[in-house]
Amino acid sequence: MEKLQAIRGMNDILPENSLSWQYLESAFQRVIKRFGYQEIRFPVLEHTQLFKRSIGEVTDIVEKEMYSFDDRNGDNLSLRPEGTAGCVRAADQHGLLYNQQQRFWYQGPMFRHERPQKGRYRQFHQFGVEAFGMPGPDIDAEVLQIAAMLWQELDLSDFLTLELNNIGSAEDRANFGSALTEFLQSKEDQLDEDARNRMHTNPMRVLDSKNPDVQAALIDVPLLEDFVSAESKQHYAELQDLLNSASIDFIENPRLVRGLDYYNNCVFEWTTDTLGAQGAVCGGGRYDGLVAQLGGRDVLACGFAIGVERLILMLDSLGKIPQDALQPIDIYVTCIGQNVTKQTLDLAQAIRESQPQLGVISHCGGGKFNSQLKRAFNSGAKIAVILERDGDGESTLETAKIRRLDDSAETASHKIAVIPQKVAEFLEKSES
Ligand code: ATP
Ligand code: MG
Fold first, then answer.
1. Residue 356 has pLDDT above 70, yes or no
2. 149-152 — which CB contacts under 8 Å span 24+ positions?
């Protein structure tokens, strides 16, 4: 029978890779805890309407990338393409945004039907933070501090650049949009069909057109920066000031626009040139209008999302994952001789109880000593504990050997009762 394969662009994370994931997840959780953010979890499926109303009907994500379907009741649902919409929906539904400040984080899989390639998948994972009820720019600086501290923790700071832009308030953007539509109408005969369709629905997207004829028509196009209000400029200048005093380097990128409609004022991306075309590892900004747009109160907000796969690719290619984090277990307990199953299990358990920081595999399934030792090597353990039985197979087990599972093959023999203590010392000695 033909074997079934995973869906294209949806990856299995195998045990050898999951150690890198765990390393990254624990770094993120350590950092986020230092900032006092609380975890929020929300479903991977939501009403399609939620994403249309937040991300925007005329965006790549909603038009081309969502996994949407009618369920058995005929409700139109979508797998979440990002986390912010679901986070806002959940927080507002449970009254967490009513006259309150909140700092949340989340992590989990997101789904976008894009062309799979390195760093771009159909199921991918994000860590995100969302902060509600604060006008900024202090909170904007804080979320950037979180990302910067994570890069530090991962030793990636040298490989990431923060790009900033001010895309103006919702009102500024509306004014710009009208001016843009007017301009595009005057050039209608030079636009392609796509641009003509978008000219009314989302004129800003015409600016990204890949068609050289359309680009040629855009020579004297109005500039967003001429529509950005003084207030918004002030906010942006203050944020830059805060970043400077926090020693967070950035560059300004006036071309930085985000692919989601809900952003306003300061938007940002952390990018790297170590990943080729998929260089964005974190994107975010303010989205002050979103909560109200989804039916809640006027709640100011900002946040970001990090692409986990891209960070893992960076960590792997730059060799930034410490060897220790990639160690699956510490000890493999083997036994020589007959009828020692019980003692093997007992000794492994005694080590676990007395040294809870260590991972211990107890050999199962019998077999010759050499084949057991081979399994010990293959397990990735640092040392083997070898229970030995005297030749006649009758006498009780008194001692066990500790053997380093590397080229040194260094060994030591001890009474079984002290083995749990001795393995810890043996391992410590090798680390110092
Ligand atoms: P890109 O420009 O690369 O398509 P994006 O602007 O669509 O990114 P966001 O919506 O800002 O991405 O999502 C935040 C982060 O999630 C990105 O910076 C990236 O690291 C990651 N990401 C987005 N889409 C994918 C994907 N299809 N596969 C893997 N990671 C992704
Ligand atoms: Mg994208």
1. yes
2. 149/31, 149/34, 150/27, 150/28, 150/31, 150/306, 151/270
Ligand 1 centre and the CA of 306: distance in Å? 8
* Beta carbon of 82 within 6 Å of any ligand 1 atom: yes
Q: Measure the CA–CA gap between 16 and 201, rounded to whole angstroms.
A: 47
Specify the pTM.
0.92
Strands 161-166 and 251-252: parallel
Calculate mean pLDDT across residues 147-171: 96
Per-residue pLDDT at 394 = 52
Distance 114 CA to ligand 2 centre (A): 8
Ligand 1 pocket, 196 CB below 6 A?
no
Q: Tell me the average pLDDT across 279-306.
A: 95
Asked whether 124 lines ligand 1 (CB < 6 A), one says yes
The average pLDDT across 233-262 equals 93
**Which ligand 1 atom sits closest to the C-alpha of 121?**
28
- Mind listing the domains of the chain with CATH numbers? 15-169+228-318 (3.30.930.10), 327-427 (3.40.50.800)
CA nearest ligand 1 atom 23, residue: 307
